[in-house]
Specification:
The complex is a heterodimer.
Chain A: H1 2-8, H2 14-40, H3 65-70, E1 78-82, H4 92-95, E2 99-101, H5 110-118, H6 122-126, E3 128-134, H7 156-165, H8 169-184, E4 189-191, E5 197-199, H9 208-216, H10 224-239, E6 244-247, H11 253-262
Parallel strand pairs in A: 1-2, 1-3, 3-6
Antiparallel strand pairs in A: 4-5
Helix pairs in contact in A: 2-8, 5-10
Chain B: H1 6-25, H2 29-47, H3 52-70, H4 80-111, H5 128-143, H6 152-160, H7 162-165, H8 173-181, H9 190-223, H10 230-261, H11 279-285, H12 288-299, H13 309-327, H14 331-352, H15 359-378, H16 382-393, E1 398-400, E2 415-417, H17 430-443, H18 448-451, H19 459-475
Parallel strand pairs in B: 1-2
Helix pairs in contact in B: 1-2, 2-6, 3-4, 3-5, 4-5, 6-8, 9-10, 9-19, 10-15, 10-16, 10-17, 12-13, 13-14, 14-15, 15-16
Classes of the chains: A alpha/beta, B mainly alpha.
Chain lengths: 263, 487
C-alpha cells in the first residue's frame, strides 16, 4: 500500500508528463479502436476478419449500417423496408424479392428517411424496386436528422477515418456483446446481412397490458417538420418513380380510443 | 471547427502548435505571429467563410479608430470624444444590425404596424458579440490613453487569437499584448504545455461527457413543456442549469488550456458560480470577463455608485438588462436580465439594511433563483417558460415511480404512477436523478482553477488525465455545438 502510494506520487518532469499522457492515451485509444471496430467489427463495417468471436452480428449502428446496406444497391435491385422494430423482421422471403431492411438502421420517422434517401446516388436510387414504409404512431416527433449532410465513404482508408471519427463508447459495448454472444452461442436473435432481424426463438411480448399502457396513455408529440417531411418523402419517390407502399399496424379498437386523449 | 471535434484536436491544434514554435525557433517571430493570425482566421472561417470579411473589416476599422484616439496630439478636425462616439456607435450598429434587426421588426410588426414587415433572416456572424465588446474596450482604453501604439499584426492577434475568439473569455489588450511580445513566450515551455493539456482535458470532459449528457434531457424537456409533469419540469430546469455551466466552463477550460500551449494565459472566467450565496457573488463567479467588461465599460461610465443609492440601483439594473439583451435578441433574454437586475437591486438594499442570512439558506435561495431564471434564458417562447414554471410550482399532474403505488390507498386526483420521467428519458429517470446528484456534488468540488495549482507531475495525475481524455474521446463523436457559440 505504502509502495503504491509512493509510486502514485512519484514526481516526473513536465516533459515526462506530456509524453506519458499523450503516448499512453493514443496507444490505448488506437488499441481499443482496432480491437473493437476492425477486428471484432460489430456492424460488419470492414469485413476483414472472420473469427469465432465475430462470426454472427448482433448490433446495428444508425451511423454505419444503413450506408453499408445501401451499397448493395450498387450491385442489384432491392426493395427497401423502413419502419420501427415492428417491421424489422420483414425479409426477402416474405416479400418474394430481394429486400433490404433498414428499420433498425434508419429509424422510421419521415425526416430521417427522406434525408437518407436524398443522399443516395442516382445509381442506387435506380436500383430500388419498391419502398415499404411502416408509418408507426410515434414517429412524428423528430426535428433534425442525422442524415441531413452525411455520406459514407467506399474506400477502406476513408472508411477507417470515418469510423475513427464516429468511434463511441457504445461501439465498445457492441463489440463486447458481439464477442460475448458468439462465445456463448447466443441464439435469441441475429442481424442478417440484409438488415432484417432473425429470431431463432418465437418472440412474443409477455406484458401486453403494461406495454400498451406505457406507449399509448402518454401524450404523443408531433412536429410539423415530420409531417412536412412525409410529404417531401412522397414527392421525392414520385419524382424518382419509386413506388412507395405505406402501411400501419393493426390495433385493438379499445387502444385506438385512447388515441383521442393522447394526441 | 469546434474545440470538441476531431479536426481541431488531432489536426488543427497540433499543426498550429508545431509550425508556430518552429517559426519561433527559426527566429521568425513576426512570421510566427502572422501564422497564428492566419490559423485563427482559418479556424474562424471553417465555420462559415462568409463571415470572414465582417471580422476583417471590423478589425481594420477599430484599428484605425483606435490609432486615431491613441495618437498623442490631436491634429484631427474632430474631437477625440467624437471619434470615440463614432467608433462605439459603429460597433454597436454592426452588432445590432446582425443580432437585433429581426427582433425589432417582429416587435414593430406586433405593436405598431398593421401590415407585416418581412424579416431579414440574417445569420448571426460567429463570435460577433465577443469581438465587438473586446474592440469597444480597446477603443475606450485608447481614448483614455491606456493603450500603446500597436501594429496591425499585433492588434489582429489580440482580436483573433483562436482559443478566445469564438466565445471568450473577453480579453483585455493590457493582459494580452505584453504576452504576445514577450520573448520567453516564444519558446516551448513544458510546464505550460503540461498544464495546458491538463486543463484542456478537464474542459473536454466537462463538455462532451457531462454537458452533452445533461443536454439530452434538457432539450427533451424544453421541446415539449406542455406535457411535463412535476418531476419532469424540475428535472428539465436542473439539467439545463448543469448543462449550461458545464458547457460554458468546459469551453472556457479548453480555451485556457489551448492558449497555455502557446504560453498565453487567458483570464479565468468561472469560479464555482453555483457555490454563490448571493446574486452579486454569483456574478463575481459566472462569466467573470463579461462582468468585468460590464463593470468597467458600462456601469462605471454610467456613474457607478457615485451619485447615490438610487442612481446606483438604476445603473445595476440597466447593466443587467443590457447583459440580458447581449445574450440574445428576444424578450425571454430581456426578462432574464430584468430578473437578475431586480435581484441585484434587492440584494443591494438588503445589504444596506444590514440583514444577514444563514449561509446554507442563502445558497439554496440563490441557486434556485438562478435555476428558475435559466428557464427564461433557455425557453424558445415566453409561454414555454411559463408552462415549465407552472409545472414546477403548480403541477396539474405528478407522476411517481410505479413501485410507490402500494403506499397510496386512494391517491389524489393529480397523482399517477409509472414512467415518471417518460417525456425526457426512456431509462426510467434513474440516470437523470443520479446525474443531477453528481452535478450537485461536482459544483462543490474543486474547480479547474484550484486543480491547475496542483502539482500534476505525479503518476496520479497522469492516470487522471489519461482517463479524462479516453472517456472524452469515447463520447466525442456527437460534436455538439457549445451553447455560447450562439451568442
Amino acid at each position: 500500500m505504502k509502495k503504491c502510494f509512493y509510486i502514485m506520487n512519484f514526481n516526473m518532469t513536465y516533459k515526462g508528463y506530456v509524453k506519458l499522457v499523450l503516448i499512453t492515451s493514443v496507444s490505448i485509444y488506437a488499441t481499443l479502436f482496432i480491437l473493437a471496430k476492425i477486428i471484432i467489427d460489430p456492424y460488419n463495417e470492414f469485413n476483414l476478419l472472420k473469427l469465432p468471436i465475430n462470426k454472427i452480428k448482433y448490433s446495428i449502428s444508425t451511423k454505419v449500417t444503413p450506408y453499408l446496406l445501401s451499397n448493395k444497391l450498387l450491385q442489384d435491385k432491392y426493395n427497401l423496408v423502413f419502419g420501427t422494430s415492428r417491421s424489422s423482421l420483414i425479409d426477402s422471403a416474405l416479400l418474394n424479392t430481394n429486400t433490404l431492411n433498414l428499420s433498425s438502421g434508419v429509424y422510421g420517422n419521415p425526416t430521417d428517411i427522406y434525408h437518407f434517401l436524398s443522399n443516395l446516388s442516382k445509381q442506387k436510387l435506380d436500383n430500388i424496386n419498391t419502398i415499404y414504409y411502416l408509418v408507426d404512431y410515434h414517429v412524428f416527433n423528430t426535428k433534425q436528422s442525422y442524415y441531413e449532410n452525411f455520406s459514407y465513404p467506399n474506400t477502406l482508408f476513408l472508411r477507417i477515418i470515418s469510423s475513427l471519427k464516429t468511434f463511441h463508447v457504445n461501439d465498445i459495448e457492441s463489440a463486447y456483446l458481439t464477442v460475448k454472444y458468439n462465445l456463448k452461442n447466443y441464439k435469441n436473435y441475429k442481424i442478417s446481412e440484409y438488415g432484417n432481424i432473425i429470431h431463432d426463438k418465437l418472440y412474443l411480448p409477455t406484458k401486453k397490458k403494461n406495454f400498451v399502457n406505457f406507449v399509448y396513455t402518454e401524450p404523443l408529440t408531433f412536429s410539423t417538420k415530420s409531417f412536412h417531411d412525409l410529404k417531401r418523402l412522397n414527392e421525392f419517390c414520385m419524382k424518382h418513380q419509386i413506388p412507395i407502399i405505406y402501411f400501419n399496424l393493426p390495433i385493438y379498437s379499445k387502444y385506438l380510443k385512447t388515441f383521442d386523449i393522447c394526441i | 471547427m469546434l474545440f470538441n471535434g476531431y479536426g481541431f484536436i488531432f489536426t488543427f491544434l497540433p499543426i498550429t502548435f508545431f509550425i508556430y514554435f518552429y517559426l519561433n525557433h527559426k527566429r521568425l517571430t513576426e512570421a510566427s505571429k502572422g501564422f497564428l493570425v492566419f490559423s485563427s482566421l482559418f479556424f474562424y472561417s471553417w465555420w462559415n467563410i462568409t463571415y470572414l470579411p465582417i471580422i476583417l473589416s471590423s478589425m481594420l476599422f477599430n484599428y484605425i479608430v483606435g490609432n486615431s484616439l491613441n495618437s498623442g496630439h490631436n491634429n484631427h478636425r474632430l474631437s477625440k470624444k467624437s471619434i470615440l462616439t463614432f467608433g462605439i456607435v459603429s460597433n454597436i450598429a454592426l452588432l445590432c444590425y446582425f443580432k437585433y434587426t429581426d427582433f425589432m421588426i417582429d416587435n414593430l410588426n406586433y405593436w405598431i404596424f398593421t401590415k407585416d414587415m418581412p424579416n431579414l433572416n440574417l445569420a448571426l456572424p460567429l463570435a460577433i458579440s465577443f469581438f465587438t465588446f473586446q474592440q469597444i474596450s480597446y477603443l475606450v482604453d485608447s481614448y483614455r490613453q491606456e493603450t500603446k501604439e500597436y501594429d496591425f499584426l499585433n492588434y489582429a492577434l489580440f482580436v483573433t487569437f483562436f482559443p478566445q475568439l469564438i466565445a471568450g473569455p473577453i480579453v483585455h489588450h493590457k493582459e494580452m499584448m505584453p504576452q504576445f511580445s514577450k520573448i520567453r513566450n516564444k519558446v516551448k515551455n513544458y510546464k505550460n504545455i503540461a498544464m495546458g493539456l491538463f486543463i484542456f482535458f478537464i474542459g473536454l470532459f466537462k463538455k462532451v461527457v457531462i454537458a452533452d449528457t445533461f443536454a439530452q434531457w434538457a432539450t427533451a424537456g424544453f421541446d415539449k413543456p406542455e406535457v411535463l409533469t412535476f418531476f419532469e419540469a424540475w428535472a428539465t430546469s436542473l439539467t439545463y442549469t448543469f448543462q449550461l455551466y458545464f458547457d460554458f466552463s468546459g469551453y472556457t477550460d479548453m480555451a485556457i488550456g489551448a492558449a497555455l500551449l502557446f504560453n498565453i494565459r487567458l483570464p479565468i472566467n468561472f469560479n464555482s458560480p453555483y457555490k454563490a450565496t448571493d446574486i452579486q457573488d454569483f456574478w463575481r463567479r459566472w462569466h467573470m470577463t463579461l462582468s468585468r467588461f460590464m463593470r468597467d465599460y458600462i456601469y462605471i461610465p454610467l456613474g457607478g455608485n457615485k451619485n447615490g443609492n438610487t442612481s446606483a440601483c438604476i445603473n445595476v439594473f440597466s447593466v443587467a438588462l443590457i447583459s440580458g439583451l447581449w445574450h440574445g435578441a428576444g424578450w425571454t433574454f430581456v426578462i432574464w436580465g430584468a430578473m437578475h437586475g431586480t435581484a441585484l437591486v434587492v440584494h443591494r438594499v438588503w445589504k444596506q439594511l444590514g440583514f444577514t442570512m444563514n449561509s446554507i439558506l442563502a445558497w439554496f435561495i440563490t441557486f434556485n433563483f438562478i435555476n428558475i431564471t435559466w428557464i427564461f434564458f433557455r425557453a424558445k417562447e415566453w409561454d414555454d417558460a411559463l408552462l415549465i414554471l407552472s409545472n414546477m410550482f403548480a403541477p396539474t399532474s405528478i407522476r411517481l415511480p410505479k413501485f410507490t403505488d402500494k403506499y397510496f390507498d386512494a391517491p389524489p386526483e393529480i397523482f399517477a404512477f409509472g414512467g415518471w420521467m417518460n417525456h425526457i428519458t426512456y431509462d426510467g429517470g434513474k440516470m437523470v436523478v443520479f446525474s443531477i446528484c453528481i452535478g450537485l456534488c461536482l459544483i462543490f468540488r474543486n474547480n479547474t482553477n484550484d486543480l491547475s495549482t496542483k502539482n500534476i507531475r505525479s503518476l496520479k495525475y497522469v492516470f487522471f488525465s489519461i482517463i479524462l481524455l479516453l472517456i472524452s474521446l469515447g463520447y466525442m463523436s456527437n460534436e455538439e455545438v457549445f451553447l455560447y457559440y450562439e451568442f
